[in-house]
Each structure stands twice: as structure tokens, then as C-alpha cells.
Design goal:
Distance between the termini of chain B: 54 Å
Helix content of chain B: 25-40%
Largest sheet of chain A: 4 strands, parallel
Strand order of the largest sheet of chain B: 9-8-7-10-6-1-4-5-11
Strand order of the largest sheet of chain A: 2-1-3-4
Structural class of chain B: alpha/beta
Distance between the termini of chain A: 86 Å
Largest sheet of chain B: 9 strands, mixed
Strand content of chain A: under 5%
Number of helices of chain B: 6
Number of helices of chain A: 27
Number of strands of chain B: 11
Largest interface: A-B, 26 and 18 residues
Oligomer: heterodimer
Radius of gyration of chain A: 29 Å
């Protein structure tokens, strides 16, 4: 096609115009629908956002993850092939129109790359089809459009290879350095009809490209395009921090009660979802028979936008229906979420599931007042007693009686505040963890004090139940107390306290240097400020990753390092559900205070996983008071309390402290 | 239908109550106050009627010190329409409170007056029946449910092993034991609206109530004795000796046999 005739150029022009019109018309509609959403600024830290594009979009980082390495590689090949071949396609159209080529396209290197990818893509497509048809992944939604797209891709690759080889055979394309995939094909087409095959395949290829452009934005394969902005505009908040409702006292509506209440970014998430089901695969609620399905949350919002959006565009005052999760499937779905972030971690295209769920919870709690009764009780308790259990406010510091632990009032120059948290203050089991930590701190000579009765719940459960108002009241109260005591550094033994004070208090102007006890203890061990001896018999200890240490804050290694440093302890993993694939204990997101009536209890499943490893562990160690309570309950319910004991890592350390 | 719910502000159930230095009252410094739980159930029962029929009006009133205003705000936040504060001394007697409430009721003319069956602080259960008496109205206690119908109301009472259904003409005083649902958690717009609502304040004199000389007096208060540790009897095989020892302890030490 180096010397295009005028008629063919016109035909090509018309086809390109049709293709582009089909794509951009739909893109324009989708863009306008997106603008129905609430405004939200996602333009901060451009450098980090660009880095994300390179790592996550171009690098396919979130696809190449345990346990999806092979499938992820298949996708990456198609994607990288798509990039290389799209450049070739653009060159094809330009060359067809003006007879000139884009840079590099005529080099042997590009020809090689193109053809190797064409074959690789073809192979990956075949694998994908076989997988869909015969090895269907359990929670993957298989729609016919998937086959159409795979068919189109395969067709593009075949026509590409055919027109190239036929073109070479007919002498109409420069053979250059013929890449290996083509060498064989060239001989196949070297005959009378080579020219006709070349022209036919070329046009078929061009028509397929343009058909693809028209079809793409009408299917989930739109993600090829939308992932680009979705990654760029992903939240720059720490993962553990929920979005704050600013100026809450003067607002009239809270949370998401209809499609307009979601932000444009939350709606963009819907356009970007490829229905791969990785989020659902990793959801502890879904795995234990709850109605919650994180993928469904994203898709329902998208479907509702596509269904009702056009009506809202036509009439800005039109009534909207509540989110599907209130009506079609009941709010049970929303209340089942433990905010463990397994879905967020798993999503290859950086969809933010928790924010949507919490926004809908906010509406249910703050606007409708329909949180589950047990959750309401927990909130009332936080309000009145400063802890979700409803234990007396004045008794908060009682656990420390007789232990010579000073309060900040008694020791105003203490370097650290130990923010004890409700669980370690009131729950008898977790009081032992608080005592273990204070013993370690004293042994290391760390200067610390507690707040005693002046401490109050950090607000995490209230915030995750959707009660942003109560959360802010609690947070402000603590920030005032901490600032009045001129606290600079905070230690917590609870990952929820840690996450909230470290990642969420800055939103309200509370900035402290916060450290969870386990990274601190690791430092104390490294600096030889504590020494550990063989105080106890050798034992195998399984480590359970708390979600708010691990996935939310990336603290995977420090607790393991501490366990490894404890003499006599051999660490085991609850594989494959460990590290970033750790399985929730079931208590996050305010679930600690809600009943769990549907399906299997999440903590029981966790104990099943623990037992299934057959690692010979006699203890399971964690770094979170909720996990400890849930594991104890689970171990008891399974009747294995004789063979496996839940503990906190801190207790193992304290038991082997050598006093010098 | 018009409801008037009478409530009392009491120390919250999460408060660890301490006896004041005078030995006759409790220490109230820095404690959390809330609506007495049975009164909260009464509010919930009334608001459920409002949910079913938005024309229903639910008013609340309390007789007590100025801090009681917070309890009224809480009731407004839950969804009550208006509130009245009758200021009175902390130690106002039950009969005086009943008379003041009666004056408020005569003015407001509700169809149904609901009170908790007793306040959770002194547990006297006096004000409700005394109010009905002062008004010359019938009263029905231990309510768990109400169903308006015809000219009156069907009142469900909890009794041992089941419930009774009474019907009463209006107006009537109902003393609430429990609601089927937990008292509702206020919505945030409810809290904000309640903050801005005016709460009219009256005192006993304005209602034409002269406080009676106290008819009863608290002589002394003391905290319950510290709970001692439990006693564990070693099961060493001789069941008969063990049982004998257990019986002896229950009889002589625990004095329950």
C-alpha cells in the first residue's frame, strides 16, 4: 500500500472517520455520565501519579501477583502486544492515507518485536479462550462479549501476520530481516494470489481495528482506556485512611444515597472494572457465605449509572433511586464488609472498594439511622463511655494499677505516649498484652507514659460503621488531650489505633510520630536494648497478619523479624493466606461489635486455614487485639484450644525477657 | 395522635457510681448523664407511631435541673417534635414531679402520655402512677407495644410467660417496659436540627406547683461490698465428702441454704 489510489484513500478515510466517531461518541456520553458524580480533587502529587502509571499500567505490576502469576503474564503479553501493535496499526493507517511511515516502524527491530508479540498475543488469546471455556475460574463472570473481544484480537493478529507475509511474498512489502514467525508463512503465500491475499488481509485488518474501536467503549474492555486515568487519579491517601467529610456540622447530606453522591472517581472505577473477579476471590465475607461481593458493588454502581444516568443528564432534577445495595440485595452486603482491603489489594486496576462501601454505610448510619442494632449500641457506648464495650470511662486505666506505669500527668516529660486502646484497657485477655508491652518498654528503658482515664476510643469503629460525626468527635477529643500533653511520639499495640492516629488524625490536624509496638520492639532488639533468653521451651508459632498492620500499612516484615529473634521460636506461615493475602479475622470495619449470622464465621474459617497448614504450630501469634479475641473464639469453637494457643507476639517476647 | 413522653435524666449505665462524701447521695462530678433506659423505650414506641403516621406529634418533657436539657436534646435528635424543660431542684420528690408533669399535660392535651416504668437511678416507679392519679386518667403498666385503633388504643403488657392485651380509651397514661426494637440511634441531620431547636423552660411556680415537704429521706448510701474471689473445691474422688463440704459452705458461709 505504498502507492495508495485516491479511491482507496477515500474509503479508508471514511472507515477511519466511522471508527473514530463510534469511539468518541460513546466516550463523550460516558464522560458526561461521569460528571454526574460528586466533585473530588485527585490532582495532587503528580510525580507519584506518573510513577504509578509506569509501574501499574505499563508495568502491569498489580496483575503479576500471587496467585495469578501465570494468568497475569498472559494478560501482560496481550497488553504489551497491544501497545506495540497499536503503534503498528497507527502506522498502517497513516501509511495508508499519506504513504509515510511513523518513526522506527520500518526498522528490523520493530518488525521483529511486532511479529513476536503478534504470535505471543495469539498464543495468550488461545489460552484465555481455553480457560474461559474449559477451566472456568470459580468467581469469574463469563459474558459472551469476552469471546467477541478475544475473537477480534485473534482476528487482528491473524490478518496482521497474513498480510505481512503475503505482502512479502507478493513483493509488495520490503522483506527486510524477516522475523521467524513470518519466515514460514511467507512460503505459504508465495503463489499466484499473494497480491489478492495481501490486499484482502490488509483491509480486513483495518476494518477490524476500527470495529474494535467502536466496540470497545461499549464493553468491559473499555478498561484498556480507562485504566490509564483510573491509575493516575487513584487515591493519594494512605490506604488505611478513609476520606474525611469536611465541615461536617454544616452539611445537610452525608454519604452515598444515590448515584450522584458517588464521586466521579468512584464512577470511573465502574468503567474500569474488567470483571476479573480477583476482588471477589479474596473477599473473606464472600468466602464465608455472606451476600457481600466486592465486584458486584462496583458493577452495580456502574450498571445503575448506565441505566439511570441518561435520564439524569436530560433532567438534572430527576429523582434518583438509592444504590442497588439498599434495595435489591439489602444492606446486609454493606454491613458484612470487614474493610480488610483484600479486594483493594487484589484489584489490578486500583479500584477503591472500601470507600464506596463506607460511603453507603455513612448514608445508612448518618442519614437513615439504620445501622444494625449492635452497631448502634457500640456507637452509643463510644459516645457515652468512650469505648465500644460500654465499660466505665473512669476504669480505663485500671489495668495499670500496681504496675508502676505513670500517666502523662505524672510524667509530663515522657518521650512516648503508649496509647493503650479500648481492647487492651478493658478486655482481660488483651490487658495481658498491654502488660507484656509495658514490661518490654521498661526493660529497654524506654521513657513512656499512658493517659489513663483521659484516653478515649480513637474512633476507628465508629468511622468504619459510617458514623463520621462520632469519629470526628472522638478524634478531636484525643487530639486535644495529646496536644495539651505536648505528645510527640505515640506507641500503640493495636493496629487500628495505629492506623487511625497515624493515617487519619492528620486530616484533623493531629500530627504525631506513631509507631506500632512490633516495629518498635524490632528496633529495640536490633539496638540490643532488650535481651532475650531461652525462658521457655522451643515452639512453632504461626504468624497471622492483621489487616491493619499488613495490607493497610505494609507492615509484614517487622512482626516476623521479631518472631524470628525470639529464642526457641520457629515461625510458620498460614500459607497461602499470609502477607498481602492474609485472611481477615472478621473483626475489622466495626464487625467486632456486630453479629455474624450469615454463613460461616470468618474467624472460624481463619482457624480452618491455620489447621490446614499442618505446620505443627502450637501457637498462633498476631499483633492485634481484635485478631486475638477472634482467634481465641475460633480456636475454642473448633475445640482445638488444647493444641493451639492464640497469643500476641509481644507476649512471646515478654516471656523471654532477660533482666540484667 | 399526640404523644407526650415524660423522661428523666439519670447517670448513664456505663458510669461507675460512687457515693458522695455526704454518704447520702452519689458523686456526680464529671459523670455522663443520659435518658433513663425505660424512658428511651417509651420514646421509641412513640416514634414508631410517628414512622407509621407522620401526622403524629411526639413531645417530650422532663422535670429536673438545668443539665436535663441535654436529655431533651437527645430525644429531639431521635426525632421528637418538641421539648419542654421544667426546672426543679435535683432532689425534687416524685409527687412534686408528678404534679408539675400533670400541669404540663393539661396544657399540652396529648392523647397518650408515656413514661418509663421506672427511672434507672432510684428505681422507685412512682412518678407514672402518681401522674395518672393527679390527672384522674387510667394507667397501664409494663407496656411493650401499642396499637391505636378506633377511639382508643390497644396496649400490650408483658406478664410472666406471655403478654396481655388491654384496650383503653384516650387519654391514658402508659408505663413502658420495653420496645421491640432498640431505641433508635439519631441521624446526623436529626442531631443538628435538635441543636438548633428552642426548648422552652418553666419552673414549678409558673406551673402553680408548690413543693411539698419531703415525705421521705435517704438516710445513708453505701457501695456494695467488694466481691471476694471465688472458692474452688478440689475434686479428689470422694464425691460424698465434696458434696457435704459444698452444702456446709452454702449454708454457713454463703447463707443461701
Amino acid at each position: 500500500m505504498t502507492a495508495p489510489t485516491q479511491g482507496l484513500v477515500l474509503l479508508l478515510l471514511a472507515l477511519i472517520a466511522l471508527g473514530f466517531a463510534g469511539f468518541f461518541w460513546r466516550a463523550w456520553v460516558l464522560y458526561r455520565l461521569l460528571r454526574l458524580g460528586r466533585n473530588e480533587d485527585r490532582t495532587d502529587s503528580p510525580a507519584r501519579r506518573l510513577r504509578d502509571e509506569i509501574v501499574i499500567y505499563l508495568g502491569q505490576r498489580k496483575l503479576l501477583k500471587r496467585p495469578y502469576y501465570v494468568r497475569g503474564l498472559g494478560h501482560a503479553l496481550i497488553f504489551w502486544g497491544f501497545l506495540v501493535i497499536t503503534y503498528g496499526s497507527a502506522d498502517l493507517l497513516v501509511a495508508g492515507l499519506v504513504g509515510r511511515h511513523l518513526p522506527l516502524t520500518e526498522t528490523g527491530l520493530y518488525a521483529w518485536t511486532l511479529d513476536i508479540f503478534a504470535v505471543a498475543v495469539l498464543a495468550a488469546v488461545i489460552v484465555a479462550v481455553v480457560r474461559r471455556a474449559f477451566l472456568r475460574p470459580p468467581r469469574m463472570h463469563i459474558a459472551p462479549e469476552g469471546y467477541v473481544i478475544l475473537g477480534l484480537i485473534a482476528f487482528l493478529m491473524v490478518t496482521l501476520l497474513v498480510f505481512e507475509s503475503a505482502g512479502i511474498a507478493a513483493g509488495q512489502l520490503e522483506p527486510g530481516v524477516t522475523p521467524p514467525p513470518l519466515a514460514g508463512l511467507v512460503s505459504v503465500f508465495s503463489g499466484e494470489g499473494a497480491s489478492a491475499v495481501y490486499a484482502g488481509a490488509w483491509w480486513a485488518h483495518v476494518v477490524a481495528i476500527l470495529a474494535f474501536a467502536v466496540y470497545l467503549p461499549r464493553t468491559k474492555h473499555l478498561h484498556i482506556v480507562t485504566t490509564l486515568p483510573n491509575v493516575y487519579f487513584r487515591s493519594s491517601r494512605p490506604r488505611g485512611a478513609l476520606q474525611m467529610i469536611d465541615d461536617i456540622e454544616n452539611k445537610e447530606t452525608f454519604g452515598a444515597a444515590n448515584i450522584r453522591d458517588f464521586s466521579w472517581k468512584q464512577l470511573l472505577d465502574g468503567y474500569t472494572c474488567t470483571e476479573c473477579g480477583r476482588c471477589s476471590d479474596s473477599c473473606p465475607a464472600l468466602a464465608t457465605g455472606k451476600t457481600l461481593d466486592p465486584q458486584k458493588i462496583v458493577l452495580d454502581i456502574r450498571d445503575q449509572l448506565l441505566r439511570e444516568g441518561p435520564k439524569l443528564l436530560a433532567d438534572p432534577k430527576a429523582e434518583t433511586t438509592p444504590p442497588a445495595h439498599w434495595v435489591e440485595t439489602k444492606p446486609d452486603e454493606l454491613w458484612a464488609c470487614t474493610t480488610c482491603a483484600a479486594c483493594v489489594e487484589a484489584c489490578p486496576v486500583t479500584i477503591e472498594h472500601i470507600d464506596k462501601i463506607v460511603d453507603m454505610r455513612r448514608s445508612l448510619t448518618l442519614m437513615e439511622g439504620t445501622a444494625p442494632p449492635e452497631a448502634q449500641r457500640a456507637m452509643t457506648n463510644i459516645e457515652r463511655a468512650g469505648n465500644p464495650w460500654g465499660e466505665p470511662r473512669e476504669s480505663r486505666g485500671d489495668w495499670a494499677q500496681g504496675l508502676e506505669i505513670p500517666t502523662f500527668a505524672e510524667k509530663p516529660d515522657a518521650e512516648y505516649l503508649y496509647f493503650v486502646g479500648c481492647a487492651a484497657s478493658y478486655d482481660r485477655r488483651n490487658q495481658r498484652v498491654a502488660r507484656a508491652l509495658t514490661t518490654i518498654l521498661k526493660s529497654a528503658g524506654v521513657s513512656f507514659a499512658i493517659l489513663g482515664a483521659a484516653e478515649t476510643c480513637n474512633g476507628d469503629p465508629a468511622r468504619r460503621i459510617g458514623n463520621e460525626y462520632l469519629y470526628q468527635l472522638q478524634a478531636q477529643q484525643n487530639i486535644e488531650t495529646l496536644n495539651a500533653a505536648a505528645v510527640k511520639k505515640v506507641i500503640t499495640s493495636c493496629p487500628h489505633c495505629f492506623n487511625t492516629i497515624a493515617n487519619e488524625y492528620p486530616q484533623l490536624g493531629g500530627n504525631y510520630e506513631v509507631v506500632h509496638a512490633l516495629p518498635l520492639v524490632k528496633r529495640l532488639i536490633d539496638e540490643k536494648r532488650i535481651s532475650l533468653g531461652d525462658g521457655a521451651a522451643p515452639e512453632r508459632v504461626a504468624y497471622h497478619d492483621p489487616c491493619y498492620l499488613g495490607r493497610h500499612n505494609g507492615i509484614y516484615d517487622a512482626p516476623r523479624d521479631v518472631l524470628d529473634a525470639v529464642p526457641g521460636v520457629t515461625r510458620t506461615e498460614i500459607a497461602p493466606h499470609h502477607r498481602e493475602r492474609g485472611f481477615c479475622c472478621g473483626a475489622g470495619g466495626g464487625r467486632m461489635w456486630m453479629e455474624e449470622k450469615m454463613g460461616q464465621r470468618v474467624n472460624h474459617r481463619r482457624v480452618d486455614q491455620l489447621l490446614a497448614t499442618k505446620s505443627g504450630a502450637t501457637k498462633v501469634a498476631s499483633g492485634c487485639p481484635y485478631c486475638l479475641i477472634m482467634l481465641e473464639e475460633g480456636v475454642g469453637a473448633k475445640g482445638v484450644q488444647e493444641s493451639i494457643t492464640p497469643v500476641d507476639v509481644l507476649e512471646l517476647v515478654a516471656a523471654r525477657l532477660e533482666t540484667s | 395522635m399526640k404523644f407526650l413522653v415524660c423522661l428523666k435524666q439519670v447517670p448513664d449505665s456505663t458510669v461507675r457510681v460512687k457515693v458522695a462524701p455526704d454518704g447520702k447521695s452519689i458523686a456526680t462530678d464529671g459523670i455522663t448523664w443520659s435518658i433513663s433506659p425505660y424512658d428511651e423505650y417509651a420514646i421509641e414506641l412513640a416514634l414508631e407511631q410517628k414512622d407509621a403516621d407522620p401526622a403524629t406529634i411526639v413531645s417530650v418533657v422532663t422535670v429536673g435541673p438545668a443539665r436535663s436539657r441535654d436529655a431533651l436534646r437527645q430525644a429531639l435528635a431521635m426525632g421528637c417534635d418538641d421539648a419542654t424543660l421544667v426546672t426543679a431542684d435535683e432532689k425534687a420528690g416524685g409527687l412534686d414531679v408528678a404534679k408539675a408533669l400533670a400541669a404540663v399535660v393539661r396544657e399540652a392535651k396529648p392523647d397518650l402520655v408515656l413514661c418509663g416504668k421506672q427511672a434507672s437511678d432510684d428505681d422507685q416507679g412512682l412518678v407514672g402512677p402518681a401522674l395518672a392519679d393527679a390527672l384522674g386518667w387510667p394507667h397501664v403498666g409494663m407496656l411493650t407495644k401499642l396499637v391505636p385503633g378506633g377511639d382508643g388504643v390497644e396496649l400490650w403488657r408483658e406478664v410472666e410467660g406471655g403478654h396481655e392485651v388491654w384496650s383503653a380509651p384516650l387519654p391514658v397514661v402508659g408505663l413502658v417496659h420495653k420496645s421491640a426494637k432498640e431505641p433508635r440511634y439519631p441521624s446526623l441531620p436529626g442531631i443538628m436540627k435538635a441543636k438548633k431547636k428552642e426548648i422552652p423552660e418553666k419552673d414549678l411556680a409558673a406551673l402553680g406547683v408548690t413543693a411539698l415537704a419531703p415525705r421521705s429521706e435517704v438516710v445513708a448510701m453505701e457501695p456494695p461490698p467488694q466481691r471476694g474471689g471465688g472458692k474452688i473445691l478440689k475434686a479428689d474422688g470422694d464425691a460424698k465428702a465434696l458434696a457435704t463440704e459444698l452444702a456446709r459452705l452454702l449454708h454457713e458461709e454463703a447463707k443461701v441454704l
